[in-house]
Specification:
Helix content is about 80%, strand content about 0%. By secondary structure, the chain is mostly helical. The longest helix has about 35 residues. The chain has a single domain, classed as Chorismate mutase (Chorismate Mutase Domain, subunit A). It contains 3 helices and no strands.
């Protein structure tokens, strides 16, 4: 494969990640609505810890577990931020 072939594959994966991130965010918003109705806090540190542990356990590499944790921390932070913003008016 050429560098252009690899870049095309990266572009394809980036598009898939974008779709997945937005699908995940939409689900987080639905959870945020339920949490608001049930008066449950948006932040659930135990749940986040379980996610980080599961992703680290499932990680085949080459990214190190610390990198995977940082990536998921960011995704979860953005989902939590979105939940807080969107559920204020509900």
């Amino acid at each position: 494969m050429t560098i252009d072939d690899y870049r095309k594959e990266i572009n394809r994966l980036d598009s898939e990640l974008l779709r997945i991130f937005n699908e995940r965010a939409a689900l987080a918003l639905k959870i945020g609505e339920i949490k608001k109705e049930m008066k449950i806090p948006v932040y659930d540190p135990a749940r986040e810890k379980r996610i980080f542990e599961a992703m680290s356990n499932d990680n085949p590499g080459p990214l190190e577990n610390e990198a995977i944790t940082r990536l998921f921390e960011r995704v979860i932070d953005e989902s939590r931020r979105l939940e807080r913003i969107r559920t204020k008016g509900l």
